Amino acid sequence: MYSVSIEARFEAAHNLRSYRGVAEPLHGHSYRVIAELASSSGDLDDDAIAVDFVSSKRELERLAKKLDYGYINQVEPFTTLNPSAENIASWFHRELTDALRDEKAVVRSITLWEGPVNFVTFVPQGEGQ
């Protein structure tokens, strides 16, 4: 099986509503999101492509643009959901999965970098086990 990775970047501010019992101060990050994709069939298509880089990257960048240069806490579902790196990564997974449904692509994992040294990887249950 082939694995295809695409990447997008965005700048955004957020604050955790509860961080060890207190509200975190507003602050920003330079985010980097990497999606690992695979063909839902596990095979290559007639053009010898597992997942189209161009269309899948366009969708990932569209999602990143929803957060870019904004305050993540004001974007659904983060108006009520704590905007932790973990929750942001799982949001990207859900949204990208929906966006790529017609592409016959599976989102195997999302890695979200919060600055240059900290990251979280979301792998849905059943993947990578």
Structural features, described:
The chain is elongated. 23% of the residues lie in helices and 31% in strands. It starts with a strand and ends in a 7-residue tail after the last strand. It contains 2 helices and 5 strands; from the N terminus they run ββαβαββ. A 5-stranded mixed β-sheet has the order 3-1-2-4-5. With 129 residues, the protein is α+β, with helices and mostly antiparallel strands. It has helices at residues 53-67, 85-99, and strands at 4-14, 27-39, 70-71, 105-114, 119-122.
Task: Give the strand line-up of the largest sheet.
Answer: 3-1-2-4-5
* Helix-strand topology string: EEHEHEE
Please report which band the strand proportion falls in: under 5%, 5-15%, 15-25%, 25-35%, 35-45% or over 45%.
25-35%
**Major sheet summary line:** 5 strands, mixed
Percent of residues in helices comes to 10-25%
The counted number of beta strands is 5
Helix run count? 2
Average pLDDT score: 95
Shape, principal axes of CA atoms: elongated
- Point out poorly predicted stretches: none
Radius of gyration based on Cα positions? 15 Å
N-end to C-end Cα span: 16 Å
Helix- and strand-based class? alpha+beta
